[in-house]
Amino acid sequence: MKYQKHLFICTNQRQEKASCGETTGMKLVELFKKSIAQRKLNISVRAQRAGCLDVCDFGPAMVVYPEGIFYGNVTENDVEEIVESHIVHNIPVERLRLKF
Question: Does 21-98 carry CATH code 1.10.10.60?
């Protein structure tokens, strides 16, 4: 496996229901990439935009693989906590975690 962790951040824009939105989603993608690069984790961790994750009511949403942990209602202020806790220390951020 090339990456130890892979973050997919939804950038899907829907008119008929709540969604993550391209503007908000892309801002989150850039912040995750910046945080990962600052920690020099960009060799083993990748953050990228994704299409619909089918959790529109909880947007902005993202998922971290290989664990398959979904996060909802993610804001710019949550990026550092997710990277530090989940990506660096393997401790999911429970207050943002979506449980199905």
Answer: no
